[in-house]
Amino acid sequence: MEAKLLVDSKKTRKTIIDLIGRCRRMSWAVAWATDNAILDAAHRHRTKFQHLVIGTHGYVTDPKALRRFLGEPFLRVGDPTGPLFHPKIYLFDLGGRFAAIVGSHNLTASAFDANTEASILLESSVDEPV
User: Fold this and answer.
1) Mean pLDDT for the chain?
2) Which residue(s) pair with 30 in the sheet?
3) In this model, does residue 128 exceed pLDDT 90?
4) Is residue 21 classed as helix, strand or coil in its secondary structure?
5) 91 and 120 Cβ atoms separated by less than 8 Å
6) Which residues are registered as beta bridge partners of 39?
7) How far apart are CA 50 and CA 47, in angstroms?
8) Long-range CB contact pairs, 71-79, < 8 A, 24+
């Protein structure tokens, strides 16, 4: 298994967009989402989604981001009240390999353009124990 620390958010954005293009399937869970380049790429490749779970706690998620996937069977939207739903997980099936990005990057423009964020990229063959 390979592990790489992602601290440059612009490079992280590029990495995710590249993985979107290369993957067979993907599953994501994020606390919040707003319009951004990653969301654009995800929407273009939406047929690859198995799961997309987006939280709305605190009303940070932009309704426009949700509308892009409205009616898709893979979309689940978290309740804006109750316990905070706060994951940031991007999982990609690369056909015999997988990649996962886990860390602090929400699916927001701020996370990839303005904030100081850190995540880890894990890549492995499907046969390798993680």
Assistant:
1) 96
2) 54, 88
3) no
4) helix
5) no
6) none
7) 8
8) 72/46, 74/46, 74/49, 74/50, 75/49, 76/51, 76/52, 77/53, 78/53, 78/54
Angle at the Cα of 90 (from 118 to 8), degrees rounded to 5?
25
Question: φ and ψ at 14, to 5 degrees?
Answer: -60, -40
> CB-side exposure of 97: number of CA atoms within 13 Å?
10
Tell me: pLDDT of 63 over 80.
yes
Contact 87, 98 (CB under 8 A): no
Q: How far apart are CA 33 and CA 65, in angstroms?
A: 6
Q: Are 88 and 57 in contact (CB under 8 A)?
A: no
Q: Who contacts 11 (Cβ-Cβ below 8 Å, separation ≥6)?
A: none
**Cβ burial, residue 71 (10 Å; 0-12/13-18/19+):** exposed
- Selection from 46, 44, 31, 38 nearest residue 13 by Cα: 38
Task: Work out the end-to-end distance of the chain between its first and last CA atoms, rounded to an integer number of angstroms.
Answer: 7
- Tens of pLDDT, residues 72-97: 999 999 989 989 999 999 999 999 99
